[in-house]
User: Fold this.
Amino acid sequence: MIISNSAPNAGAQAEGQDPQLKKGLHLVNRENDQVVNEPQENPELETPEAAPNAGDAKVVDEHQADSEPTAQEAAEPVDGDADMKDEEEKHSSSSEDEDADSATTTEKKGVKKSKAKDAKKYKPEYSKEHLEFLNKVTDISKAEIQRVMDDEKIPTFQYGKGLNCVIDLSAAMKNGIEILTPVVNRNHGKDQITTGDSVRTWGAQQLLLVITREMALAANIQVSRFSNNPSKDQIGDNALVAINGNGRLNYVYGLKEDERPQLYATFIEPDALGIYNPAKAMEVINTDRSMWKTQDLVQKRILDEGEKSHQGWCFVNELVKKGYMYQAACQTATLNTDRINKRDVNTGSPTNIFTYFNSAQKIHEAMVKKFGEDDDKTLKTKEFSKEISELWKKLLKHKGEQWATEQFVEFIQNFREDKKNEILNAKNQKNGPSKDDTRKTILNEQFNQFLGKKSIEI
Assistant:
């Protein structure tokens, strides 16, 4: 759809302007709206191969090569750029020639023309409980979209037969309307800069998708300000939430107001049943557009399950956001010695995955108090967290979970200060042990001394 305030009859229309056409609109083209060099979007709640009815998405279950996250790793996806490019190229080849051939040869070769499926087959299936929940979300969504269309601070133009509109985000931001982001664990890193630079150079050729803050809260989607948004004021009820384009918006918030490129958005559409399902919309958008890592699927599960989501998933998600490597976050939250794979993230029983969750929380609390986790990365590495789990499991096999946890917490609390500093200051030796090996050696030495003092034989 093209919307322009420079149409031939613009002058005549200005005097008797349609009340739903608000000022501030410029040329918007919704066809072929791919931004040059734009990364495939998420969120820091930006899915997935195994998601039901989610298309042919590629999910990357990556294994980080390095045991300790660098500053760059904490700010950008771990997936290899080359792998992502290869995968994108496979899906980006044009099918125009194939379409032309099929149009001229179908009847000649006697190939049967494909028939569209019955419309009923495209309707989503919801449980009775979920449908009741989504009906409430839908009622709120309809009211919210209408409210935005009536808000003079948010220039909009209604289009189509349904309840939707094009939103002039740039004008809305100038008028004090905040754009928020879902609370997610994905980070765009360098891709965010690449995208932002492209938008500033070539213009935003793609509409963003948004919902309102109230729609997000109704759908149990937690939201927050963008990291580049300096505002400290209370978030207003009239705020909008970006479902895609979060990298672009965070980039834009880092610019001076007069340097920001023009941005437009539209609301998400209802499904085939007329239901507004923001969480599913965000999943489908990101499934079709990007390769999600397993850690991103954790946030998807939290979105899907809402308040019923196990606290273990939230714990893993919070650790990742703090800079923990995904495997380290999993080992910390489960006291197992490996990551939670994508199948278990998608469909696994949290009872089986987080069997020792209470013990994991107690041990992690003791570890943070002793070693810290802000600037230091020791706890955030997969090797150190793996060693912690292995030592605890030795106690577990000896005398059960409660006793094992009590003993291990005591071991950490009484860890020698000088040895703690040796662990924190460990460095890779050119012709000697790695810092991971040094840390494990010190940890095991202190653990064995602790067992000896307690007369514990394992």
